[in-house]
Specification:
mainly alpha
Length: 198
């Protein structure tokens, strides 16, 4: 490219040379030769510029294609980020729901424990009453006292069955709470993993 430009400048300088420096006899051939050289240089310069134009156009096309690919990849990444945010939001919602369920289970467990304490107190009172009746029955086996004893014994058996059922219920609640806490830990770990940078 610089050689062609230099050639063209030389040709222009030759054409622009004053007429006094050229011999009078060789005026026409010199002009013809200079014009030929000038046209030849202009043709080469045009071809070189055309090549530069085509190369630049190819580079621009390639750059546009690369930009299109980058835009597509960026769109995919944005979709992934959006899906990740949606998944994290769902996990947070699930976590909140499970925490509400855990709080409800804790309240139920506390109410059941209170009921068990009350039943245990009732059993203790029944045992004391039965002991007093046994002492009375040792002295005299009266019909009314015996009926009262049998009724108290039946009530004590019923209370024991209730305590047994409540104990089983408390154990099941404990298992449910343990499972719930395990699920909460898993969700918290998933949230922590989702929050880490890629």
């Amino acid at each position: 490219m610089p050689k062609l430009t230099l050639c063209l400048l030389c040709a222009l300088a030759t054409v622009a040379r004053p007429a006094s420096a050229v011999p009078v006899g060789g005026l026409e051939p010199a002009k013809q030769e200079e014009l030929t050289l000038l046209f030849h240089g202009a043709l080469q310069l045009g071809q070189a510029l055309n090549g530069v134009y085509r190369a630049t156009e190819a580079r621009l096309t390639k750059a546009g294609h690369s930009l299109g690919l980058y835009g597509h990849v960026l769109g995919l990444l944005q979709q992934e980020v959006s899906r990740g945010r949606d998944a994290a939001q769902e996990l947070r919602t699930s976590l909140l729901e499970m925490q509400v369920e855990e709080d409800a289970l804790k309240l139920q467990a506390a109410a059941t424990a209170q009921a068990l304490r009350e039943v245990a107190q009732g059993q203790q009172m029944l045992r004391e009453s039965m002991q007093r009746l046994e002492v009375r029955l040792r002295g005299a086996w009266l019909g009314h006292a015996r009926q009262e004893f049998e009724a108290l014994k039946a009530h004590a058996d019923k209370q024991s069955h209730i305590v047994w059922a409540l104990t089983g219920h408390v154990q099941r609640q404990g298992q449910e709470m343990a499972a719930q806490q395990h699920r909460l830990r898993q969700i918290q770990e998933r949230l922590h993993t989702a929050a880490l940078p890629a």
